[in-house]
Predict the 3D structure of the following.
Amino acid sequence: MIADVVLGLQHGDEAKGKVTHYLCKYKSYTHVLRFNGGCNAGHTIYHEGKKFVTHHIPAGVFYGIKSIIGPGCVLNPEQFFKEIEELESNGINTKGKIFISKNTHIITEGHLTEELSESKIGTTKRGNGPAYRDKYARVGLQAAQVPALEPYLIDMYDEFLSDPSTTYKVLCEGAQGFNLDIDWGDYPYVTSSHCGVGSLFLNGIPVRWLNDVWGVAKIYETYVGAKDFEPQTEDQFFDKVRQVGEEFGATTGRPRQCSWLDLDNLDRSVRMNSVTKLVINKMDVLRDLNRWELVNEGEVISFEKEKEVIEYITERFPDVEVYFSDNKHRI
């Protein structure tokens, strides 16, 4: 019985969906579990030549794998049913493949209305913050209390632990990124859920099942929110990164602020989440722009060739398998 994990190591938008989709195709999982966040996060996936953007539904559904929205998530039923309709209309069979933990909390119309006025943090205004607040205030609404969701409900203990003779291979799919974690991010510019590897244990996965942790980052960093994040350059270089890298939010369409990859922050995320396999995405963006720079100990370091960057990052993480990937399709 093993559980692999895919999680973001930056501020979200690291192309975790691509990695999850790739692993679902080649690793023979019995389940895919989404373990945090809600419809404030969008996973962009290219499947059989079509582009899909999912917000709630785990990527396992594209390969007929049982896909569960865990209790660490918050769920908007309207968005949930909309995604099912979109998947079905594009040839993805969802029947008997999508489930919701019965103790997953619900994003209500009241939560959506309340967050419309939020401006301090720069949220996506999808109601996540108020929904998590009500969960911990013990006044929230759980999925088991919503009749329309009844056909999709599942008990996490019954599913994974009631029959010790059954073997499971679970891929745990995270949302956002570790630098947005409610405890370990740049508070208050954080999300409302736990984005690290520990979150999957709060979803009912036993600690002893933990196997590989796939940490995902980009060769540069992006951030969507209210704080100032993007360095100013004379040649407006990060405007070029934004255009070439298509750095616009999958949920809101907002332009993402861009910056150089900070190796100290990446090292922190790798260590705190026990990452065993590190994927560095979007190498082709900086290749197209012919400029390679990283931040180390607060200083910007320049490189002449892509090979030098690959060697520098690989040497920085000697105990981790490091993979370098181009945009969208290749891993």
